[in-house]
Specification:
Helices cover 38% and strands 23% of the residues. It is of the alpha+beta class. Strands 1-2-3-7-6-5-4 form a seven-stranded mixed β-sheet. The longest helix is centred in the C-terminal third of the chain and has 16 residues. The protein is elongated, with a radius of gyration of 21 Å.
Amino acid sequence: MGFEIDAVVGYPINDEMDRVLGLAEAVGEPVTVTFLWEGREEAERAVLVPAATLAFWEHWAPTSYPTSDAGEENRAAAQEPELAHPAKFGTFTLFRRRAGGRTAVARNGVVVAELLDPDEAHWLQEKARNVRQGFMDPKQKAAFEEFLARQASLDDQ
């Protein structure tokens, strides 16, 4: 990732989530977050990607993130996660998506960021960068073709 900020968020006291989500929104860059949820032993890592950045990545990424080839039992569990009420943290609300495992982050009814698995965020960013670097808009392509047409052939040099 271009630049990375690590933030550790425990149980959302003193508006920790509000500050971290506000930080991601302010810098306009992905923020790696480690969640230490109350009642869980393991920490959960995710990348908080501002909505505009994610839209840019998804525009340029040629395909969607590949799913793992887990067994049928795991795939069924992954496709039908348990429904939960949206979680409120200060002015933000987290909506866990049933498909894909992403969590949309909304403020005042507007999605401002999404929590993604770190591998998916890295994959999206890399794919978007690679495709975008190989893209020429039509005017640029025409100008380049004209430039090439004016060049002397290798035999003449």
